[in-house]
């Protein structure tokens, strides 16, 4: 029985896990893509989706909520509001993509490239699908 357990623990305590999620999201927003393990990427997806959905509203309350969730990182929040929210303004969800890279050399953990979806990427994918 599930008993209302939300999300993945990733064998970490709550504060450590939350700090990891904020770190991953900050790097994802600034670099547009990161390489991480599959488990971490899947665990961060809801955090990223909620953050982008809140940022799209562009109200004072939403800006404060974004800053709260990013633990006061104003540089990343500014990138989120100025660069990313206009790109995703017409998109309801599915802001991220996971691309498998294979196993890590040391322990064979599944590594993935976790990236934000852009409009130009979607056009490239849709034309490739139509061509096949």
Kindly describe this structure:
- With 132 residues, the protein is α+β, with helices and mostly antiparallel strands.
- The protein has one domain (14-131): 50s Ribosomal Protein L17, Chain: A, CATH 3.90.1030.10.
- It is built from five helices and three strands; from the N terminus they run αβαααββα.
- The protein has helices at 14-31, 38-56, 60-69, 74-87, 119-131, and strands spanning 33-37, 96-103, 110-116.
- The chain has a three-stranded antiparallel sheet.
- A hairpin with a 6-residue loop joins β2 and β3.
- α2 packs antiparallel against α3 (60-69).
Task: Kindly summarize this structure in a few lines.
With 132 residues, the protein is of the alpha+beta class. The protein contains 5 helices and 3 strands, in the order αβαααββα. Strands 1-3-2 form a 3-stranded antiparallel sheet.
Name the descriptors:
132 residues; alpha+beta; 50s Ribosomal Protein L17, Chain: A; 3-stranded antiparallel beta sheet; 5 helices
